[in-house]
Design a protein that fits this description.
By secondary structure, the protein is of the alpha/beta class. 32% of the residues lie in helices and 20% in strands. It folds into 2 domains: 259 residues, P-loop containing nucleotide triphosphate hydrolases (Rossmann fold, 3-Layer(aba) Sandwich), CATH 3.40.50; 197 residues, Nucleotidyltransferase, domain 5, CATH 3.30.420. Strands 8, 9, 10, 11, 12, 13, 14, 15 and 16 form a 9-stranded mixed β-sheet that branches. The longest helix is centred in the C-terminal third of the chain and has 18 residues. The chain is elongated and about 115 Å long.
């Protein structure tokens, strides 16, 4: 005998499904929602499996996607839908919405099960022909366990919120958790993200962030629909709800940064960016060493370099502690500064604790050698106190002609970072090699706040040390002598006409 669900007529198209629901509510379907519904229906017909729907705050996108879930169940009661959200309470909200639609929409008549225990607030099972272990719809927070679950559709509803993306560690954790979806989806399953960006390094960003280690956007290959609250010419996307006056009021009340992110869907940095990395002048010239008329010359892009500053901010021991960072900054004759390389040092797994200091010194010596660094400063505060001597030994052992000096920092970190970067960024005289964007340094710049605690700034501290040091005052090399590439630094023997 066929079940009541099996006797139902075929479900209407999704746009008609939405119109019918809105008619029950005594309202018409806004053009904005018709656009979203048409986009979802089109990709459902084409069997697109990767979708991203971005629309401004309070646009009704979650409500519409709830209707989409109910429509999928009306088409195929055997389908399994999982809703993931930053908090389980938000995921449950969508599940409750879909339950109300299933109970009241004519196209879903007969889907509500007879047993109350199959109709819970965080999951439910509709009347279906197949016996399946997983429910028809399930709500889960990102912190919840989804191991062992299977789904035909996964809805990621506002998984990116400030609490999941305001630090590098949280963003990495978010991406790691979302990667688990691949083990939940059945082959050919559909993954649909809906949300708005909350970070410059948003999972919704259309471009890869090289400084975050991305070679492609996180949602690369996803079909995208992005609907900001207003078009570039100022036309409102939903004039019935957000007319010109209300849009202007939201902009004034929330501030430009939040308005750009949440209403215009532009990934922007959280708060005012004091150290704006967009002010760095990028270059990709290699460091060139040559000799002419017996004089060694170091240059970048045909510009002769006159000095260098190299700084090592050491750290070792705990993997989750401060980073050990070494950086080198060159200067040309016009006092332009070039951040040519910055290295976040790490050691292979299994390195013995007693070898860590020497191993790090070996890495720093290699860094100095490939960059022709004539002198290097080590921050000798705390654990760095004994490193200058150890590093000198490694320089000597590897025949690297680089003087090493220990330096005790007494200026507060915030002040020395501001003093080092502010004026040079403003003047456009701070250049950086393209390779710097492949390190965490640019992300540190974008997220650094003078009043923030716990923000990663180890790279900033190392580069600030380079910029604050007076390169002309490098001590003379005490060990193996290399050709002196700095103008005026080569020894000169004078002829005299008197005897001593």
């Amino acid at each position: 005998m066929k079940t009541q669900a099996a006797l139902r007529p075929p479900a209407p198209g999704f746009v008609d499904f939405v119109d019918e629901w809105n008619a029950l509510q005594g309202q018409a379907t806004p053009a904005l929602h018709a656009r979203m519904a048409g986009w979802l229906a089109g990709h459902a017909a084409e069997k697109t499996t990767r979708l991203l729907l971005m629309a401004f705050r309070a646009s009704g996108k979650s409500t519409l996607v709830g209707l989409f879930c109910a429509w999928l169940l009306a088409r195929d009661p055997d389908i399994r839908v999982m809703v993931l959200a930053a908090e389980e309470a938000l995921a449950r909200k969508m599940v409750r919405n879909v339950k109300r639609i299933v109970e009241r929409h004519p196209a879903t008549a007969g889907l509500k099960p007879p047993r109350a225990d199959m109709w819970a607030s965080d999951q439910f099972v509709v009347e279906r022909a197949r016996e399946l272990r997983d429910p028809s719809m399930l709500a889960r927070g990102l912190a919840g366990n989804i191991t062992g679950s299977r789904a035909d559709v996964v809805i990621c509803d506002d998984v990116e919120v400030p609490n999941t993306c305001d630090t590098q560690v949280k963003r990495a954790d978010l991406r790691e958790r979302l990667a688990e979806i691949d083990y939940v989806l059945v082959p050919g399953g559909v993954q649909l993200y809906i949300g708005t960006p909350h970070s410059y390094y948003s999972i919704y960003a259309a471009e890869a962030r090289a400084e975050a280690g991305e070679s492609a956007p996180f949602l690369d290959g996803f079909a995208r629909l992005s609907i900001p609250v207003e078009a570039p010419d100022g036309t409102p996307a939903w004039p019935e709800r957000f007319d010109r006056d209300r849009i202007d009021a939201v902009r004034e009340r929330t501030g430009l940064r939040k308005f750009r992110a949440q209403m215009l869907l532009e990934p922007v940095a959280d708060g005012d960016c004091r150290l704006d990395p967009d002010r760095l002048v990028a270059y990709d010239w290699p460091l060139e060493y040559s000799e002419g008329n017996g004089a060694p010359v170091l240059s970048l892009g045909g510009r002769r370099l006159v000095s260098a500053s190299c700084w090592w901010d050491p750290s070792y021991g705990k993997a989750d502690g401060d980073a050990s960072v070494v950086a080198v900054v060159f200067a040309d004759e016009d006092d332009n500064r070039y951040l040519h390389e910055i290295a976040y040092l790490s050691l292979p797994e299994g390195t013995r604790t007693e070898d860590e200091a020497k191993s790090f010194c070996r890495l720093v010596a290699a860094f100095a050698r490939r960059n022709h660094v004539p002198g290097l400063r080590v921050e000798a505060n705390g654990l760095g106190g004994f490193l200058p001597g150890l590093l000198r030994g490694e320089m000597s052992a590897s025949a690297t002609p680089c003087a090493v000096t220990g330096f005790h920092n007494r200026v507060p970190k915030v002040r020395r970072i501001l003093d080092a970067f502010d004026a040079r960024l403003a003047s456009g005289m701070l250049h950086a090699h393209r390779g710097v964007w492949a390190t965490p340094f640019v992300a540190e710049m974008r997220e650094w706040r003078a009043d923030a605690n716990g923000v990663c700034d180890d790279g900033l501290d190392a580069v600030a040390g380079c910029l604050a040091a007076d390169p002309v005052r490098f001590p003379a090399l005490a060990r193996a002598q290399a050709p002196e590439w700095r103008p005026g630094m080569a020894p000169h023997k004078a002829r005299t006409e008197f005897e001593i």
